[in-house]
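All the exercises in this workshop are built on plain-text protein records. A record pairs a protein's sequence with a compact description of its fold. Backbone structure tokens are a discrete shorthand for how the chain folds in space. Once this layout is familiar, the rest of the handout is easier to follow. As an example, a complete record with its sequence and its structure tokens follows.
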Amino acid sequence: MKPAEVRTKAKKELEKLLVEKKGTLFGLKIRLATGQLKETSQIREIKRDIARLLTVLKEKGENAAK
């Protein structure tokens, strides 16, 4: 997910995506712990997506407060 894509979405949509990504991360961590996860780089990608979403949500929140 690219930062430009994230910035074009509405706040509700970003919050929904954030919940989905956190659920995905949880599932990947479980699979990693049980030895079923082959591509461990997926965890890093999901964490970065979550960070992007949180950053944009914070930016939108600050802009709304002004």
Observations:
- Residues 3-65 form a domain with the Helix Hairpins fold (CATH 1.10.287.310).
